[in-house]
Amino acid sequence: MTEPNPANATNFLSGISVVEIGSRISAGLCGSLLADAGASVYLIEPPEDQQGSSAKWANRALHAAGKHSVAVDTEADRDRLTAIIGACDVVLLSSDVDPDWAVEIAKTVAPGKILCDFTAFGHSGPLAGQAFDDAMVQSICGVAHTTGFADGPPVALQVPLLEYSTGTYGAAAIVAALAARDRSGGGQRIDMALYDSGVNSLATFLPAHFGGKVPMRVGNQHAMCAPWNAYQASDGWLLLCSASNPPWRRLCNLMGQPDLADDPTFVDLSDRMENRDELNRIVQGWVGQYDVTTATKLLMSADVACGPILRMEDAESDPNLKLRGMIRDIPDRASGGTARIPGSLLRAHSGHGRLAEYVPRRGDTGAAELEALVGTVAAGNDTPDANELPLEGLRVLEIGQYTTAPLTSRHLATLGAEVIKIEPREGDAARSWLPHNGDLSIFFVMSNSGKTSLALDLKSEEGRKIFIDLLVSADVLLENLKPGSLDRLGFGWPQLSEINPRLIYCAISGFGAESAYHERPAFDTVVQAMAGLMHANSFEGTPLKSGVSAGDFMGGQVGLFFVLAALRHRERTDKGDFIDVSMQDVAVWMTGHLWHQDRAESRRNPMLKCADGYVCAERDFDATGREWATMARDEAIALLSREGYMAAPVRTLAEMVEHPQTEARGLLQWHASADGLQWPLLGSPMTFSGLRPFIGNPIGKSSVADASMLARLGIGA
């Protein structure tokens, strides 16, 4: 690959024009992703007195970089905006928080256009129309309940996680709608809700609920593994992860206490989980002797997964982030200074994402450029909504494990693709994760609905031949193996592109295929630590990971968007491509909203402990001097409302599952497997007016690659 610069940018979405009106962060992030992939984005900037308290406009440089700024101050400007919308393909809106005039103009969008509306709860269900912010929605959908320490309150993440997730899903939904328009004509109304993204992010916690347990907060620990925690060195923090007996034994040897590995208190994983408080004290005692750099080097030399917990301000010195150009300073024409923004997430064989060269001044898009735009005619102005799923007839191969690649391919399946999950003969390790329904993991089935599983030994001659035949027939190959794994089997990008020149190959890994950290394990929490995400969410001086696996699922979502964009580009070029997604890139991108915030003055949303649970209040609310413990949550919320403050209940997962909003949005569905068992499956967070994402059947046992199975897949034995 080549170094990212404007000259070698790939333009997956060239020719697509976007009008960004929405004032939610998610609308701005969606516009930035579309611009990154080559679309022309026209940022509509209202007068300052109409921008309200939007966090998007508080971070204008982040959201304006790489876009064409159009000021809307007068009635004449609004008339011109209507004409601009008529000439563009896509309109981004946030109808629950946008000014009335913006919502009225959006109503004039022709049926053949793609209108994507980002709101807190969507257009259906009892919560529709309530303009809650990210922290409040985290609380209502159960995400806040999963974050925090076991003996402390729930925590709303400082990073606006659901805005980032919804903006990314929205970008993917828009490209899917463009593909549907290309197939059959017609526009689409896309209904994107922070709540829906939040429920989808809970895939690692929901299995415990459906297995009859009560998911609890675990701080920086792991719900099923130990030792796994943040430990304090002499000059900072590091994260250490041990998921099985071999790394635990290596850690004991490193600490100079080899007998601990055979101590009945710690000998098995279940023993270590039962005694992890004592275990944490032992590991902390060893780590505390060293500085972060020394402890990390020692752990890496013993092949124990770990990583320094970087402060956000130190991320620019991280070797991998420097290599991948993820922190950039560009001219800010509005302020006359410079602005620090994240680099491009898109790294492909054909080129990289389109880098913003500067932050534009407000309204600096010239009249001549706008007149030329208005003189164009975008496709599909009057045709009805498309209803044919855009990926029907396409084949996706997934060599995935756990969360990231399986998430990407699961959503591709909902959009019509045939997904073949290739597993080793012994099966994906997640098949055995507890709890089970029958003899299969609930987590595994929730993560892999709508797929066909095929057991294949890629090291055998027979397995390699079958894999090559599958590659010839495939449109997409997805994997989240350790970088270089397929290369060592003879299936690197040069070989894959020779086997199938039209193949879109997407590799998702912790630090990227092009990386300074070739041998570093890529657990989600290590990525959060080494991107500044845990530091960004520090609670009372201790770095804190998100309860949900933010690095994992956001890496999968970004992969989904880029695969869809690359498929659209292939329709024009007839060429495949290789996409390199780094979860660390994605995680540091997510901290961008906090880079210019004064952390000393930054306040968290107060969590009020009531008689029946917690309430999340606005950040500027002073919670002292009240007897919250004597009030029910509804009483506390009513009291705050009377005083002019917004508040929301912190719902448990059980409460979220039973909430009418979850049912109205179709976010949890029960489907029967071939053996008659009922399985809880996640609904799609992408809601369309015409398209109906298909939640396929629960995945079953892995199929043997015998003659009948190969015939079913349309390939020779």
Task: Fill in the keyword field for this structure.
single chain; 717 residues; alpha/beta; Rossmann fold; 4 domains; 28 strands
Question: Secondary-structure blueprint of this entry?
Answer:
Blueprint: E1 17-20, H1 25-36, E2 40-45, H2 55-58, H3 60-64, E3 68-71, H4 75-87, E4 90-93, H5 100-106, E5 114-119, H6 134-141, H7 143-146, H8 161-184, E6 188-193, H9 194-200, H10 206-210, E7 228-233, E8 236-241, H11 245-254, H12 269-274, H13 276-287, H14 292-301, E9 305-308, H15 319-323, E10 327-331, E11 338-342, E12 347-348, E13 351-352, H16 367-374, E14 395-399, H17 404-414, E15 418-423, E16 436-437, E17 440-441, H18 442-447, E18 451-455, H19 461-473, E19 476-479, H20 485-488, H21 493-499, E20 504-509, H22 524-529, H23 533-536, H24 550-573, E21 577-582, H25 583-590, E22 607-610, E23 613-617, H26 633-642, E24 647-650, H27 653-658, H28 660-664, E25 668-672, E26 678-682, E27 687-688, E28 703-704, H29 707-712
Parallel strand pairs: 1-2, 1-4, 2-3, 4-5, 5-6, 14-15, 14-19, 15-18, 18-28, 19-20, 20-21
Antiparallel strand pairs: 6-27, 7-8, 8-9, 10-11, 12-13, 16-17, 22-23, 23-24, 25-26
Question: How many domains?
Answer: 4
Quote the average pLDDT: 93
Uncertain segments of ≥5 residues (pLDDT<50)?
none
Q: What is the level-2 CATH architecture name of the largest domain?
A: 3-Layer(aba) Sandwich
Distance between the termini: 36 Å
The shape is globular
User: How many helix segments?
Assistant: 29
List how many beta strands DSSP finds.
Answer: 28
| Structural category | alpha/beta
- Percentage of residues in DSSP E strands: 15-25%
Largest sheet: 7 strands, mixed
Whole-angstrom Rg: 25 Å
